[in-house]
Amino acid sequence: MLVGVDDEVLLPIGQFARLGRLSVKQLRHYDELGLLRPAYVDGETGYRYYRASQARVALAIGLLRSLDVPLAVVGEVLSGVPAALEGVRESLEEELARRRRTLSCLERVMAEGLPAARVRVVAEPARRVGVVRERASGTEDIGRATSVAVGRLLEVVTAGRVSGGVPGRAAGGVAGPVRLVGLFPVDLGELVEVSVALVLEDDCRPGGGLELRVLPGGTFACATHVGPYEHISLTAHAVLAWCAERRHVVRGPLREVYVSDPAVTSPEELVTHLMVRLEESDES
After folding, report:
1. 106/165 Cα distance (integer angstroms)
2. Degrees (nearest 5) of the Cα angle 210, 215, 221?
């Protein structure tokens, strides 16, 4: 032990680590980050020494880390930044909601077994669409990205920045009106680009930043999902499994054709058509 300039006893890093309930490795890391600097560093040996009064900060860091607070935010909390934990709370709420959706899907699989939705082959014409895109940070972020894209698209429609008609007719081979179509890559990586398309009449001219595209037509495998959007992945699994069993090569994105209006339809009664464009694989 050493005595500091204010006559307070300084503790070597090992002893302080036990007092602050942190490891020596953590203390060295927090020193490098500037979260918890030692009171004194021996210039010859490099040994770190701490005041006993610094244990309160060490314990606070341990508490915040146990609550999954990122180190960058820990520094803000220790610096007294107002509302530093608000973003952490929102992040934890989003994670909790995602976990609940995952649990809901798991419970459905436990109750009904692995999905085996009826898949049919349909012919779909090419369609003019106005598209908005949103980037998801991973598979767990797709729901948020989709909601943001839908919201942006509906804002354009509500503001009247789409001239011409918006169809209420049925897609070829798929019953019910088609208005919005979600487009998702079949192969999911760390970054996922989500697109939501508004089907347009031939004379419709999209504005408001919508990207005009043509969704290719062709032959599609299609299954109807009835139930909450968070369970759509189960029906998508059934469609992809059906394609794999028949050696169909899937072309283009997975399409989610939203038939129901969630504003007036209960989650258990939402109807969504899952569609993937097919290409016969080589038998060689």
Report:
1. 41
2. 135
Q: E-assigned strands of 60-126?
A: 120-124
Q: Cα(139)–Cα(146) distance, rounded to whole angstroms?
A: 11
Tell me the C-alpha distance between 272 and 234, whole Å. 12
The distance in angstroms from the start CA to the end CA of the chain is 77
pLDDT in tens, 137-168: 877 788 888 888 888 888 877 766 555 444 43
| List of residues 6+ apart from 240 with CB closer than 8 A | 186, 250, 254, 276
Cα gap 162→148, rounded to integer Å: 19
pLDDT in tens, 240-267: 999 999 888 887 799 999 998 888 999 8
Q: Count Cβ atoms below 10 Å from residue 181 Cβ, excluding itself.
A: 22
List of the chain residues with pLDDT < 70: 1-7, 159-178, 189-190, 203-208, 280-284
Contact (Cβ atoms closer than 8 angstroms) between residue 59 and residue 52:
no
Query: What is the number of residues in the chain?
Result: 284
pTM above 0.70, yes or no: no
At residue 185's C-alpha, the angle toward residues 164 and 110, to 5°, is: 110
Please state whether beta strands 192-199 and 271-280 pair in parallel, antiparallel, or not at all (unpaired). Answer: unpaired
Residue 278 has a CB neighbour count (10 Å cut-off) of 18
pLDDT digits (tens, 9 = 90+) for 180-191: 999 998 877 667
Q: Decide: 173 and 229 in contact? Cβ < 8 Å.
A: no
